[in-house]
Backbone:
């Protein structure tokens, strides 16, 4: 039987517990889940790509069936096609997430036939976004309940927060 592979794409700037929970559930549905860390050159990131990859690798090191890869800055649908993935995983926190994701899901399917599987976010993590994590951290708040240990370490290593919050 062929392997069922899915891609979970994102900036992960930084990865947070809402992402991790969706990744863990996706890993239960597919043989392999590729966490594809994107680079969008028009975006200003808090963490460079290497750090975003490293935080995800450390977080999922003990879990089989979860791969961490750079996605590059090309089309997601092409990346999925090249990697033999039949599905894109997206977590949904709200109807506005759905409104944003639906046209992309349709376009991605029309481009290469890749389907999008939406997983409802766990209610405990409905409020989380990387932007909010960065804002709370930058303003001196405690984010330790919301991010994996590897991310907390990297945030702490940034030292005194600067009061400029990259979006995304
Ligand atoms: O975590 P983010 O920044 O919301 O992730 C966005 C991502 C990487 C999923 C999105 O920007 C994306 O799909 N980029 C790939 C470019 C692409 O395929 N664009 C056409 C979408 S139909």
Residues:
């Amino acid at each position: 039987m062929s392997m069922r592979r899915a891609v979970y794409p994102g900036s992960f700037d930084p990865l947070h517990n809402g992402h991790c929970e969706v990744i863990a559930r996706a890993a239960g549905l597919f043989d392999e889940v590729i966490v594809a860390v994107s680079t969008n050159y028009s975006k200003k990131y808090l963490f460079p790509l290497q750090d975003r990859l490293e935080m995800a690798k450390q977080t999922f090191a003990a879990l089989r069936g979860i791969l961490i890869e750079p996605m590059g800055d090309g089309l997601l649908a092409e990346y999925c096609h090249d990697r033999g993935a039949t599905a894109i995983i997206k977590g949904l926190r709200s109807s506005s997430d759905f409104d944003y994701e639906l046209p992309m899901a349709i376009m991605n399917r029309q481009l290469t036939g890749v389907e999008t599987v939406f997983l409802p976010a766990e209610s405990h993590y409905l409020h989380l976004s990387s932007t909010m994590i960065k804002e709370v951290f930058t303003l001196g708040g405690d984010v330790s309940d919301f991010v994996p240990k590897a991310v907390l370490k990297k945030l702490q290593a940034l030292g005194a927060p600067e009061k400029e919050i990259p979006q995304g």
Residues 9-11, 38, 75-77, 104, 107-108, 168 surround 4'-phosphopantetheine (CB under 6 Å). The chain has a mean pLDDT of 94. The radius of gyration is 16 Å.
